[in-house]
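Journal club side-thread
Mid-discussion, someone asked how the predicted structure for our own chain would compare to the paper's figures. Pasting it here so we can look after the session.
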Amino acid sequence: MNWKNVLCVYPYRTDPLFRFWRIPPIGLEIVASAIKPLVDNVEIIDMRFEDDAKPYIKDKDLICFSLNWGNPKAIGGSSKFDLEFVFNTINNVPKGKTVVAGGRFATDYADMLLKELPRIDIIIRGYGEDPMIELFKKGSPAGIEGISYRDGDKIIHNKDRNQLVITGAYPDRSLRKYRYTALSMGVDSIYASQGCPFKCIYCEFTEKKWLSRSAESIIEELKTMDDDVEIVFFTDNNVFHDMDRMDKLCDAIKKEGIKKRYLAQCRVESLVKRPDVIKKLGETGFLIGVGIESFNEDVLRWLKKGYRPDLIWQAFENVRKTDILALGFFIIGNYKETREDMLRTADLAKKAGLDFINVSRLLCYPKTELYSIMSKLPDYHIDENRNIVYSDYYSIKDLSKIRKAINRRFYSPLHLLRTFSRFSYHFNVLRVLRQMTLEIILRGIFKKGRWIDRFLYLTNKYNIFYPIDFAFNTILKAGGRLLDRIASRKALHIAN
């Protein structure tokens, strides 16, 4: 086949997080950039900004869909992540056009998608750029590793490809037609590593090795980002795995004078390895999300996290010495976990010095070690529609009530005031609130329209309220410093 006009589609109308968090679909953008030299035209559309894909599809001969989120049970029904809309968009592609799907959801459920969605011709399993290049050069999916495809009435799955190959490729941002935002601030995304060497039993990621890009390569990409970008989101599972590399990256960012804030996920161990680098991360502008999961040693052992609670306290003793805003991820409803164990999460998280917490019920996906374990426990059950684990002791409704109780206990008025003040260390709080309010009003009235993004960009760039914002933020910072001192005196040094 000879494809010359290609459309790449991010087909979800909403984000898996929330409406004020629209991050670029970087995987799709990297694939589009990889095939750009091989075609006459390649275009990327994002359905979070569009009403209908049909006007873009009609003059294209190959359509690529990025399928990353969803529940396979949603086929034929609705889902949290708009899968009904996604599937309808795919099935409405006119016959005669080749349809390719990729992404994590497509990788995990390739066979089912090819059986249930007749308009999908080819599925790319795993990282997409190399298989797509081979597909374009060969003109046929036959024999290409990492590809599943339809051949008449037969479905063929070629052998798996070695997925962990760091190319250092990053997207051609000239293909981007939208302004992406987080909390109404310009945001971009970047990946700096692949894989994860750890063995948490609930994890869907199968790449158990870890490969990384160099600090120099990351800096090169950061320089390609628009000046409007204030927040850079690292999409890696564990960008801090190599703290020596992070040390070099912090030095390079400072040397190049790149003024942004960086959001990244990490594990507890990384916050203990190099305390000196933790300090640099704070000075560079890193904000972190940490997969803690629990303070209970038995739960940590059962989840195969690979550390004890004392390491958590040591880690956050290092973090408390910086201005880093820290989000802790926790899981409730674990094996033999009691209500009291779950509720203690709030108090311990506050004592550790966390600014935010995210408490989720235990989720169990096929192909994970957790799934095989839970399937054999007679008093534990898996909700097939939402993948939530519940038990004879705690129903899904019980777990929801406990989660709400944890959040209420953690987010006390005093804690919210302290966090609000600490937020001012990194962002102009009054400007952020004003821009978010303006966006709510405009999108509430006009729903969609690229002019809204342009207008918000201009009001952000030419801020006539800067003197007021500066004064407010200065006062807020001073209050935050005071509250930090009070909180640090009450903090635990080391938990037994």
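Post-session note: Residues 5-157 form a domain with the Rossmann fold fold (CATH 3.40.50.280).
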